[in-house]
Amino acid sequence: MKVDVYTLNGKKTGETVELPAEIFEAPVNVDLMHQAYVRQLSNARLGTHSTKGRSQVSGGGRKPFRQKGTGRARQGSTRAAQWVGGGKVHTPSPRSYEKAMPKKMRRAALRSALSAKAAGQDIVVVDLLKIAEPKTKEMHAALQKLVGESSALILIPQKGADEALVERSARNLPYAKTLLASYINVRDLLGYDKIIMPTAAIDVISGHLGK
User: 63 with 147, same domain?
Assistant: First the structure.
């Protein structure tokens, strides 16, 4: 698949770049993308929720009142669940929400997401991601010319001085996010309308997802 290459000013350079077919024209498997998406959300959960059961709360060591003769229901402890200050029943306790998924399936899900974006013409390739100084206003203007009012995921090929300026400039834009090309994930790929990547990021993705 050939796509046009743009500058940050939104103008075509007159060049085209070939997107690897095995990555950007792979079969789109919706179920696999959903599984990868759910796995990512589950693995992000801390699982630190905790409540105390009847055996963990303090107090309640003696019977609150005698068994018979009071006309009230029998009670063995003031720390039973029906009492104020009592233990909780069937409530969350610390646990791991981690889900396993084979590497081949994870990479296939990424290829599906990238192929879906490519099929929808939602991938914008730029020749170079470079701005003179870290200004949100300049990044906003550049994104307006490239993707209009759409949200954008900006893939950067590596960490460097130029990439740091781009990241700082996009940090305060609620509709944009910068991400290392080697850290692509289904949640971010599907969570933004457009994907902006320099030509150098294509090589990083090819090395990561290429067969």
Answer: no
pTM for the complete prediction?
0.83
Is the domain of 63 the same as that of 136?
no
Beta strand 176-180 with 194-198 is unpaired
Model confidence pLDDT, tens digit, residues 44-69: 999 999 999 998 999 888 899 999 99
Q: Are residues 116 and 194 in the same domain?
A: yes
Q: Are residues 119 and 197 in the same domain?
A: yes
Same domain for 41 and 58, yes or no, is: no
What is the β-pairing status of strands 12-18 and 2-6? antiparallel
Look up residue 135 and give its amino acid: K
Classify residue 24 by burial, with Cβ atoms within 10 Å: 0-12, 13-18, 19+: buried
